[in-house]
Amino acid sequence: MQDADHKKRYSYQNTHAIGRAALRRRAAGNNGTNANNASRKRSRRDALRRKEILRRTQSKLSSVLRREPSCFSQNKISIVGKRVSILDRLPFTYSKVSTLYFSDNNIKSLEGIQQFENVHTISLGNNLIEDFETLRLVPQSTRALNLEGNPITRLPHYRLHVLHILPHIQQLDKHAVEKDEKQLARSIVKRESLVLERIVQSECEIIKLKRIPQLINLRMELQQLFYSQGPFSALRQQAPEPLASYGEHGQEQSGAGFSVDTFLSVCDFYGHLTDENRLRIMYQNRHYATRFWSALMMDYSAGGGRNARRGHPFPNELWDAAYAEVIRVQQQLKGKLLVRISQSLQNAL
Fold first, then answer.
1. Cα–Cα distances in angstroms (integers) from residue 89 to residues 78, 86, 96, in the given order
2. Does residue 320 contact residue 196 with C-beta atoms inside 8 Å?
3. Cα–Cα distance between 43 and 37 in angstroms, integer?
4. pLDDT tens digit string along 205-214?
5. Is residue 114 helix, strand or coil?
6. Residue 114: pLDDT band by 50, 70, 90 thresholds?
7. What is the pTM of this model?
8. 59-154 — its CATH code?
9. What are the boundaries of each domain within the chain?
10. I need a surface site. Which of 45, 71, 109, 122 has the fewest CB within 10 A?
11. Residue of 208, 196, 159, 151 whose CA lies nearest to 180
12. Alpha helix locations (H) across the chain?
């Protein structure tokens, strides 16, 4: 018995030794590929580690100024690279500040910046700002604003959105604001808001269409449960024919007892959207449009887009094409969902 256990243990250890040797040979044979994979993994780990360190080392503006008084001099506050994430309330001593250097920090929300009512220049480069709404907190006295290196700069019509929200800005990202830009900003932002509203409505329809197969399956399960148990089992043979269902184009689909058009019209998901959910859907689809824009931008650059001036947006037609692609993808998804619903209705017959 002991010999058998010894042999089993020896065989187990030997198998693992052979496996480890095989892995070492494979690693030696694919040294270049594994080295690249290991490098990418290390990069991802380092990025996650840096993000976690930044999250744990969040600090308030007031804490930095108390710890390093030299960051404040005359009418200027410079906290570049101090890992500040919260612009909390400062004493009255700082209310006359006219210049703010807040670059290379972890600032995501500008809540608190409105306390600097006399500020003229604000530098917020290389932070975490990703939402247009937070820019509404920038004081009206601001004339020069720098947002380079923030996620918000990659959103559609970024520069025009900023000028629409802050028409008093005279210099944005180290480039002077021209008069025709402000005029263009109003029309472009209005047109984009209409497109985004259409996208939000379509997104709500997609959410409802995704729900329909679940409801059909639930109805089938309840019917089976109702007619298969207790005194109602005798009614199964006498059960009335279910109501007819009408598809997207009004054709009758008898036997399913579910009307897709009625459900879409009665379920007012869009009307009950909260402002937070609406902004979240808009934000997500802006990022989808950014992906398409990046691909279009590569084609535009490869074709020699020489008419795009430095510091100014590339042709707005590219953003229009990107949003059109988002709408096309939504229409494709709705078509697939309608096919899935049709299959569910057929299974319910």
1. 16, 9, 14
2. no
3. 10
4. 888 888 888 8
5. helix
6. very high
7. 0.63
8. 3.80.10.10
9. 59-154, 192-347
10. 45
11. 159
12. 2-29, 31-56, 61-67, 158-165, 179-228, 260-266, 275-302, 316-347
